[in-house]
Amino acid sequence: MNTPSLQEFQQAFARHLRNPSRVKRPEGVPKRQARIYQDLLFNNICGFVDICFPVAKSLMSEVRWRSLCRGFFRHHASHTPYFSRIPEQFVQYITAHAGSLSIPVWMPDLLHYEWIELAVDTDQANLEVTVDKRLRMNPTLRNLAYAWPVHRISPKYRPRKPQATYLLVFRDIDDSVRFIEVNAVTAQLLNIIALGPITTADAIATLAHQLGHANPDALQLHGRTLLADLIQQQVLFGKLT
Prior knowledge:
Elements: H1 6-18, H2 31-52, H3 54-58, H4 62-75, H5 86-97, H6 107-121, E1 136-137, E2 142-146, E3 165-171, E4 177-182, H7 184-194, H8 200-211, H9 216-232, E5 236-237
Antiparallel strand pairs: 1-5, 2-3, 3-4
Helix pairs in contact: 2-4, 5-6, 7-8, 8-9
């Protein structure tokens, strides 16, 4: 009988820990010790998930939420060694299997929105503010579009109909994560600026062209007011030109 290599043993033990009711323990591993490892790993995974998704968790019973965590633990093949990436992997798992999980249709969007706060908070981008005649994005900015009003969902409010929602999530120079709701046109303007540093006039002119706006000069005036506010809030860096 061939003795399994260390890697083969680790893989067999991992398969058992993920799904002990269906995968036998490797030979030589005591049942009690295996159960301790299983509980330790599962509880650690749940701990990272619970912290990142407090709203989603509050909308389900403890049993149902733990069932989602158990499915993630058993079936998702995560390829990152970083604990901080576990919530992102959870979002990917739920999104990929949403149709078979008996969850609200807006749940994947809500989970993504909750995870974004962690993603922005841990973003390593340099937030150094420089004086520039062209506009550039705050490098931590996420310009998000959802089919549901995810920022309003709570135990007291569960949407029944889709509602296009545009949200900005970013970190300011004081390292605080901030959230701003905007409209579709503002989101479109920011997508133009995201393509590369651009002057105020050129950004607004491009938007006017994309919208087929009947009065580009009037849009320039309104756009400059909007961009000044976004600069003040640190969504954008640079100055009006």
